[in-house]
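Hi all, long-time lurker, first post. I run a small reading group and we've been trying to get comfortable going from sequence to structure in the token notation. Rather than ask abstract questions, I figured I'd post a concrete chain and ask someone more experienced to write out its structure so we can walk through it together at our next meeting. Sequence below, copied exactly:
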Amino acid sequence: MATILIVDDEIDMCNLIEIYLKNEDYKCLKATNGQQALEILKNHNVDLILCDVMMPEMDGLTFVTKVRETLNTPIIMVSAKDQDMDKVLGLTAGADDYISKPFNVVELIARVKAQIRRNSKYNDNAVKNVYHFQDLTLDIDKRKVYRNAEEIILTAKEFDILRVLWQHKGMVMSAEQIYTAVWGEEDYDPDNTVMVHIRNLRKKIESDTRNPEYVVTVWGVGYKFGK
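-- Answer (accepted) --
Happy to help. Here is the structure in token form:
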């Protein structure tokens, strides 16, 4: 079941679109402005975003621009502004499609299905090597890490430790397991080696190293990604 994020400050419009989409077996999340939608995207994976242009706190164009800093999720802008320049601005900001209010329900559903189908084909052919969690992004192919879209410079071993823990999210890994996965060999004292690298890694990615959000210690067992 695909998940769609609806971003519109008109509650009735949000609810109406949700009804149409649920009738097509889509799961829906809703936000009334761009800032709220960004918070939702930190903790949920969505397959498509339907976004209004005129909204309080953060308008649709700003929201789309910020989303495109880290995500390639398909975005359809839904707006009462139907001038050609408005559509150009939306598409330039990073939207994949643009539909004007009042819209035809059949057309809206058709565009949603087309974008999800196109994105699904792309993902089936691409290696999913970009991970997102809260405000942290890990790009395995480029070997880069970002927090709030700002790059964090890690050493090769720090990056690999983060990658291994992230790819085993939900699993507690011992220092021995981490060392073998990252260094590719056994060591007589893996605990200290891994501990030093994780301490340095936390200094770079955690807001509070005493209360880490990403690389968490499970006392007496090892480490895991996320609380």
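A couple of things your group might point at:
The chain has a mean pLDDT of 87.
The domain at 3-125 is CATH 3.40.50.2300 (Rossmann fold).
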